[in-house]
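Good day; I would like, with your permission, to put a structural problem before you. The record follows directly beneath this note:
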Amino acid sequence: MKKADFIISYDISNSKRLRKLAKELEKFAIRIQYSVFYVPSVSQEMLFDIIETINEIIDTNEDDVRIYTVLDPGFKLGQAVDLSDPTTFS
């Protein structure tokens, strides 16, 4: 399998598990929001390792973790809109 990009998002109910998962994801992913990470260019084997790591940390009865495939890895993020002053967006 060729390499692909992924978005991982989560809702973790326990603060200890939340910190542990975030710390683990920061080793290989780019945090794009508090509970959302971008994982660039990983193989299927690496994805399985990531899933295994996540499953070792979370409680599947209480926590929710989603992994989405990025279909267009050439996407670019633009300027964010400041909600307190949207007129600054150009």
